User: Which sequence fits this backbone?
């Protein structure tokens, strides 16, 4: 079970900046989404979604410290839900400012 958890963590790290497809990850590991989430929560002590959120925040914090890009770009790249990011995406898609 520990090896499966390690493989899952490796896959999460690989796709951290993308929208996470838990069902796809489960299929790669030969299990179901339900069992993958249960196993992860049991072994890691937190839900998979919380782990992913914390890892994205950690990577974003490291980018901020390095002075890499502006905060909105970092938040957008790390898939962090920020109202300003949502607004920025809407403006970028529509081309209009409100």
Assistant:
């Amino acid at each position: 079970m520990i090896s499966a958890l390690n493989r899952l963590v490796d896959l999460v790290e690989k796709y951290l900046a993308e929208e996470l497809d838990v069902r796809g990850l489960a299929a790669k590991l030969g299990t179901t989404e339900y069992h993958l989430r249960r196993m992860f929560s049991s072994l890691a002590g937190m839900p998979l979604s919380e782990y992913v959120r914390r890892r994205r925040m950690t990577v974003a914090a490291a980018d901020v410290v390095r002075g890499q890009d502006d905060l909105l770009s970092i938040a957008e790249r790390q898939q962090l839900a920020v109202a300003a990011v949502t607004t920025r995406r809407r403006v970028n898609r529509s081309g209009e400012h409100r």
User: Anything to note?
Assistant: The mean pLDDT is 81. The chain has six helices and no strands. Residues 13 and 55 are 8 Å apart (CA to CA).
